[in-house]
Amino acid sequence: MSVILAIESSCDDTSVAICNNGKITANVIANQTIHENYGGVIPELASRVHQQNIVPTIEQAIKNAKVTKQDINAVAFTRGPGLLGSLLVGVSFAKSFALALNIPLISVNHMHAHILAHFIDDPKPNFPFLCLTVSGGHTQIVLVKDYFDMEIVGETLDDAAGEAFDKTAKILQLPYPGGPLIDQHAKLGNPKAFKFAEPQIADLNFSFSGFKTSILYFIRKQEKENPNFIAENLDDICASVQHSIVQILLNKLKKAAKQYHIKEVAIAGGVSANSGLRNGLQETAEELGWQIYIPAFQYCTDNAGMIAIAGYHKFLKNDFVGQEVSPMARMEF
After folding, report:
1. Distance CA 232, CA 243 (A)
2. 117, 124, 239, 319: least CB-packed within 10 angstroms?
3. Is 183 labelled as part of a ligand binding site?
4. Residue 274 annotated as binding site
């Protein structure tokens, strides 16, 4: 029997989940809207709001799961990677909570947890499988051999796919966070209306820096000729950008699946909530006979449910850490 409380505070969302014998019974997320005023996450503000949110979020998760503090057997937390100030709030609270109840601590790698989110609900992937993990800070293709035996076989050499969405949104003067807004506009536009420079990387790695630059130069050139170009073509621009990013991601994923002879394929991370990527993966799966796995929306973006399930599998191995543990902004995969 195990009841695990999990805390996720790597960026700007404060999240707390309860995992009861491998089943997520609560997953509470407190968002921070203050960053919308600045067009991006301000680390100092994020850590302060985490301090305000963490106690009520914990209380709500415990209430939703219908457990008491005394029922909890361990505390799992995101150690890294992430914003150091934000991580510090979650780690410090987890240590205090565990110390007060005299229960063990479980350290979780944020990127491992995104992948292990696939083991929350059925159907669950079979090992080995490939996971494309795409978020604002990471773009990776991971060969997953077991719960904690994972190998990065491809990653971005510069910017992440999520960054490409966010920076494009900024160029288009869409409010923060812009990625989901591009997705909304893309549904109304023509994905082949405009073409942008796609990176030519021979192996399984990605590059989005040049792609972002090509969008910026394209928009500048068009606006010189027509100052209303963005307003008049917003849906088509978003559809074309989204189509390009999705194709870059899927082409590498197809290459990896062929190289490793794997037909079990998953996606994870915040960008896995993107409808274009989900639809593109579905079409590719039908074409190539893949078995695909996509987490529920609540487990795509940063959330404690994925930390809880990772913590559960570490709990089964008695993989605990001591009170000397500290957060790591950069954490090895």
Report:
1. 19
2. 124
3. yes
4. yes
Q: Is 166 annotated as a binding residue?
A: yes
| CB-based contact 134:249 (threshold 8 Å) | yes
Question: Do 211 and 250 have their domain in common?
Answer: yes
Could you give the number of structural domains in the chain? 2
The DSSP line for 163-205 is HHHHHHHHHTTPPSS-HHHHHHHHTTS-TTS--------SSS-
Q: Provide the residue count of the chain.
A: 333
Q: Which residues of the chain have pLDDT under 70?
A: 32-39
Contacts of 301 (CB under 8 A, 6+ apart): 13, 270, 273
Q: How far is residue 92's CA from residue 216's CA, in Å, rounded to a whole number?
A: 41
Residue 283 amino acid letter: E
Residue 133 assigned to a binding site: yes
Give the three-state DSSP class for 153: strand
For residue 330, is it within any domain? no
Q: Is 269 marked within a binding site? A: no
